[in-house]
Design goal:
The complex is a heterodimer of chains A (about 210) and B (about 200). Chain A is mainly α and about 210 residues long. In chain A, about 60% of the residues lie in helices and about 0% in strands. Chain A is built from nine helices and no strands. Chain A starts with about 25 loop residues before the first helix and ends in a 10-residue tail after the last helix. In chain B, α7 packs across α8. By secondary structure, chain B is mostly helical. Chain B has a domain of about 140 residues. Chain B is rod-shaped. The longest helix of chain B is centred in the N-terminal third of the chain and has 54 residues. Classes of the chains: A mainly alpha (about 210), B mainly alpha (about 200). Chains A and B meet through α2, α3, α5, α6 and α7 of A and α1 and α2 of B. Chain A: Keywords: Sigma factor, Transcription, Transcription regulation. Chain A: This is RNA polymerase, sigma subunit, ECF family. Chain A: Belongs to the sigma-70 factor family. ECF subfamily.
Chain lengths: ~210, ~200
Amino acid sequence: MRSAAGFGDGGEISVPRRATIRASTADTSADDVLTAACRGDEDAFRALYRDVQPRLLRYLRVLVGADAEDVASDAWLHIARDLGKFRGDADGFRGWTATIARNRAMDHLRSQQRRPVVHGTLDDLVEPAGQEDTAQAAVDSAGTDAALALIARLPKDQAEAVLLRVVVGLDAKAAAKVLGKRPGAVRTAAHRGLRALAAHLDATPPPGRTPPE
Amino acid sequence: MSDHGRRTGNDRLSELLAAAAAPAREHELAGERAAMAAFRDARLATAPQRRRPWMLKTALANVLTVKIAAVAAAAAGGIALAAATGTLPGQPREEPVLPTSTNVVTTTPDTTKTKPSTPDEKRDNGAAPSPSLKGLCQAYTSGAGAEHGKAHENPAFSALIMAAGGADAVPAFCADLLADKSGRSDNAPGKPSRSNR
């Protein structure tokens, strides 16, 4: 496919990604919050939870489907217990929590003797949600679910790579650590995943509003 | 598809990714309370390691306080007993002058012998060496305002709790015991349960 704006060949993603979930404050203050939480500050921990939990939940939904909430709760027990042992900055914290969430998800799948959920192919999803205002639809609740559902239809390694990078907010190296792969492999998987998504959107008429033609 | 169509697809990819990473929605934070509880539990679990020396010291101080109070109360009880019988420690005892109407001294051993199967057995058991129980009661009630909850766990109070027949019964037991002392001095030490009958 031809090059698509939005990501480069190196798998760089130029989407407004970190300006999104829970208006992340400046990184220095994010580190301060993390430090305070590690020292036992409840408000700081709550702030961490509110920032990180949606990311983990959305990532987990692709791994374990409807059990994502249970697995996320399980992960947070683990996170709360081991927070005192964590060393690193706010970026490292997201990677650490993603690793915990993924491990819990794998345990869960093993215990269920099940394969990760696969809903079907990209083409099964016809339209994200019948919203009148497409620009608004992109950021409202239904748009989020639709976007996640679409990503979940990618091959699992691509879906994971895209979610870890776009939703959890990890760089390729950190995502690779979570997945136990080389950064190059994660870049490639993310790149392919985004290309597949773009191709799918290319071939699907925008919902709600017909393009001015 | 046309150029226009492809650009739309890429724009929509950006929108899609932005939507995937959109701000938290209410239901996504439903587990917050449980997570906070886990955080508190984890913090409590690690806290004793840091606080242990301090806690030990406090517990030790509590035990000492109780002991001192008990000794003081025992002494006071002894004096009260002596006063009731007209004999103070260190004073020569004046032999058979006691009138039979003031039968305080003799009743104490009698009650345990003559009524071993009373329904209030427990209290009778504890009642015999009561000066120390009274001391414990005084220590218990004086500490009631401050750290009532901890008093139950203090080993120094175990005798008191046993005598009362349970931690819950201690306040009532002590109320009886102490009321007896201040209320009717002629019935002084040893028979808190009599007033109940």
